[in-house]
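Exercise 3.2. Students should predict the tertiary structure of the chain below and write it as structure tokens, then compare their answer with the key that follows.

Predict this chain's 3D structure.
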Amino acid sequence: MIQIDDKLISFDVFEQHFCCDLPQCLGACCVHGLSGAPLEDEEVEILKNELLAIDPYLKPEGREAIKDQGVAVRDFEGDMVTPLIDGEECAFCIEEDGITMCAIERAWIDGKVGFRKPISCHLYPIRVKKYSTFTAINYDRWSVCNPARVLGKKQGVPVYKFLREALIRAYGEAFYAEMEESAKLLEQQRIQYQKGGGG
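Answer key:
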């Protein structure tokens, strides 16, 4: 693990490769899973306030799910998450050219809302877990994202570089700059280890 401030970051965030390949996965991460997208408390309030602007982008099933359940529900672990349509896809899902996209983000792209999407979605495949004295930042390996791992490896894009914009949004420019320095140190250590006959 690498520690920056009160954040403990898994080595996988620096060493594994990832680059979303939507034509291959078709946005499966928004459709599959045991619960909706994790939400911060302030994001629940934002979605409540922005729902009127997001509503025109929703598909009928999503609109109905949000009407019945609200913009957020408690999942099996007690966390606040987005509601699901019939226990499956996120209620904010829409389809564009056969690819599942986010109605919130589409509204943001069109300049209708100031909120891009839940930070948990923006940070994926990183999953964040907050504890009393530190925050754990881990790489989540999910089978539906196999195409992203293949493309990331092909293009040589580490997880942290793919998520640059999201990490800066979540933790700031200075934090990301420290991640870049940590990545350089890890690479230097790897090279020295290999020169020493360790691999």
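Discussion points: The two ends are 20 Å apart (CA to CA). Residues 173-195 form the longest helix (23 residues).
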